[in-house]
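User: I'm putting together notes for a lab meeting next week and I want to include a structural view of one of the chains we've been expressing. I don't have a solved structure, so I'd like a prediction I can at least talk through. The sequence is below, exactly as it appears in our construct file.
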Amino acid sequence: MRLSGIRLEHKKNTASSQSVPAPIPKTVRIAMQQCAGAACDVLVQKGDKVLVGQKIGDSGKYMSVPVHSSVSGTVTGISELLQVSGRVCKCVDIETDGEQKVIGGIEPPVVSDRESFCDAVRNSGCCGLGGAGFPTHVKFGYDDKKFSVDTLVINAAECEPYLTGDHREMIENTDSIFDGIASIKKYLGTENVFIGIENNKPDAIEKMTKAAAERDSSVKVVALKAKYPQGAEKVIVYNLTGRVVREGKIPADVGVIVINVSTCGFIGDYMKTGMPLVKKRITVSGESVGTPCNVIAPIGISFEELLRFADCDMDKLGKVITGGPMMGIDIFDLTDPVCKTHSAILALPREKKESKNVLISYKTQTNCIRCGRCIQACPVGLMPTELEKAFDRKDRDMLKRLKVSLCMNCGSCSYVCPAKRDLAEKNQLAKALLRT
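Assistant: Thanks for the context. Below is the predicted structure for the 436-residue chain, given as structure tokens.
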């Protein structure tokens, strides 16, 4: 298997920044679509009093996780949120009372086997905190007659520039990460555990290695090359285990479960406290941010409030991205709320000089010069130029033959393209074309 990739300027400005709590805002908007699955139904109505940890949204669908209130206060209404996908989901709007009263009955879950463990993980509202948002209980609830899972991979690569939330999780919440590992090993029966960390985080590698020696010597902490997209699921599985996840397959097909390190830390915390997922560590950075920081933010706080908290120059904003600069998404409304899947807010200035190190480029697109850089950069060996041509022709058969479904949307092809072609975007449109 050929695994390439690209080297990026790390820009980890907040790697040594201790996480700080965000002030409780006057209002929050908590979206009912918080994971890569079905949206929840609203369980409260205008005028209801809510408390921290109270369930305010749920769904009977398997691919869904409940939503809990991150604040105490009064529901002022049920609004709608236009998502980047074009879909609309409902939001519970809450006016906070500043008291942060916790609902009664919050206590560690009672777990005795894999089924009750999966139930507990679902009840916590847990989904992948690395950005994908896949419901964690679904990942843990695999069919053991179909899949023979023996390996747990903890993804702590955090390969995107600027992002340092997972880094701080390893420094600040080490014990909970290992508590989470212990629970997963106990109830899922995974014999092998690998923690993959890029080698640009030596302090995290040192602390996690020391903790592994003290807590569980069978856990292997592996320093990975700082090469994007090291944290992509197929890439990290191969680099840690040597197992190849083929086209159309998932890691469980090769006996592996992959979870983000912050997800693992949350599970460890939840098993000890019973407090559901109501807050998230967010990296606030970028050239327009006066005080780059890692913020522990309540779910539902607006992007604007976090930017102001980090002393962002709001008058000179040019582009605001949620997530990293490679796979992140432009924010078109700063009043939109933070969700469980958000890992960062990057505020970039209105103008940027062109240079080889600029991550966000504004050059005019030109014709392909057939340099082949996109092919060299693709971590799974696709041919982005040929995929672009096939998509423009709407040639479904050729898209299948060129294996567009393997594209992980890492953006490496677009990044290295001197003609500034929309290669990564075309791949995503091509995959959508095949689904219709």
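A couple of points you could mention at the meeting. The first helix runs from residue 114 to 123. The two ends are 30 Å apart (CA to CA).

User: Perfect, that's what I needed.
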